[in-house]
Amino acid sequence: MTSTGPRGIADLEPIARRREQRAWYWYDWANSAYVTTVTTVLFAPYLIAIAREAAVDNRISVLGLSVAPGALPSYIITFSTLMSALVLPPLGALADRTAKKKELLAGFAWVGAAFAALLFFVTGDNWQLGAVAVLVANLCLGASLVINDSILCLIANEDERDRVSSRGWAFGYLGGGLLLTVNLAMVTLHDTFGMTEGFAVRISMLSAALWWAGFTLIPFLRLRNHTPTHVVPESGNALKQSFGQLGQTLKDIRNYPVTLTFLLAYLFFNDGIQTVIASSSTYGAEELGFGQSVLIATILLVQFVGMVGALVFGKAAERYGARPVILVGLGIWMLIVTSAYFLPEGQVAPFLALAFGIGIVLGGTQALARSYFSLLIPRGREAEYFSFYHAMERGTSWFGTLVFGLVYQLTDSYRPAIFALIAFFVIGGGLLLKVDTKKGIRDAGNEVPSVVS
C-alpha cells in the first residue's frame, strides 16, 4: 500500500548560504580597490608632494611637532593603526549583540568611502585635509573588516569556510588589480588623456572611493541579517553591554589557549608578510636599481597572481586542512626572503619571478588564516574575536618594519634587512606547529570539519 503521509521538505538552507556567500565576496572586491590604489600606491607620494608645498625649511607642523614631509604618510598610517587597536575591540563586542551586521558593514564602508573621496580636493598645500581623510577612511576600513569577517561565520559552516574565505580574497585581488591597472595607466599616460599628473592621481583616488562605496551595495542588499546567538548577558544600554561583554571576554580568553597560541603565531607571520610587501618597492628601487615601470609591473603581477594563489591554497585546504597548507606557505615565505638576499642587481627576470612567488603565497596564507581563526572563536563572539585579530595585527604591525629599518641602519644594506624577516616566519611557524586544531575547535564549541589537521 502506498503511503499517503506528507512528503519531506527539501533543506533550502545550503542554497541560501551559497547566495549569501556570493554576495559576501563583493565586499572584498569593493574595499580592495581603496587598499591597492590609495593606501598601497598613490596616497603616500601624492601627500608628500602636497606637504612639501607647505613646508618651511623642509618641515611642517603636525600637532606642534616638526615633521619632515617625507615622513608624514608613515605617521598618519601608524596613528590610524594604533587608533584602530583601541577602537575595534569594543566595536566588535557591540556588533555581536546586534542582528544588523550588514547595516554596520555598509555604514562604515560608506563613511570611509566618503572621507576617501575628499582626497580629490587635496590640492595646493592643503595636506591637512588629506591627513584627516585617510585617517578616518582607514579607521572605517578596519571597522568594516571586523564586521565582514564575523559575517563569514554566519554564512558558511565549518567545512565551507576555507573555500569561502579564499574565494573572497581572490575576488578582492581581482577587483583591486583591475582598478589599479586602469589608474596606473591613467597616471602614467596622463599627457595622453590631457591631464596633469596631479589631476590624474586625484581622479584615481576618487575612483577607488566610488568603487568602494558602489560595490558595497551588493552585500548590503543581498546579505541577510542573522539573530545573535550565545550572547553574553549584560545589563544596561547597548554601549554598556558591549563593554561588559568585552570585559568578560578578556577574563575568559585564558580558557582558550589554542586560540591564543594561533593568534600569537599570526601576529608574527603576518607582520613578516606585511613588512615584505611594504619594503619590496624600496628594495627593488634602492638595492636592485629598478625604475618606476618595473615596480609598477611588479605590483600588478603580485595582484593578479595573488588571486590565483588564494584559489589554489583554498583548494589545497579542502583536501589537507588549513593548518598544514599555511605551514607550507610559511616555508615558501622563508625561501622568498632568502632568495631576495641573493637577487642580482639590475636583472628584471629574477625580480619578477620572486614577485610571482610572493603573489602565490600572499593571498593564500592570509585567506586561510582568516578561515582557520574563525574555527577557534566561541559562538556568539565572532565580531569581538575578529576585532582582536585585526586590532592586534594593527597594533603590532610596526615591529617588522622596525627590524627592517634597524638592520639596514646597522649594515647599510637592504639585503640583510630583508633576510632578517625570516625570523618572523620561523617564530610564527613554530607557534603554529604547537596549535592543536581539533582541541581548539572543540574548546570554542564549534563543529570539527570533515578535513582537519
UniProtKB/TrEMBL annotation:
TM spans, by residue?
26-51, 71-92, 104-123, 129-156, 168-187, 199-221, 253-269, 289-313, 325-343, 349-373, 385-408, 414-433
Keywords, ordered alphabetically: Membrane, Transmembrane, Transmembrane helix, Transport
Query: Where can this protein be found?
Result: Cell membrane
Membrane topology classification:
Multi-pass membrane protein
- Just give the chief location class: membrane
What domain of life?
Answer: Bacteria
Gene3D superfamilies found in the cross-reference section: MFS general substrate transporter like domains
Q: Which PANTHER family match?
A: AUTOPHAGY-RELATED PROTEIN 22
Q: What is this protein called?
A: MFS transporter
Organism in which the protein naturally occurs: Nocardioides iriomotensis
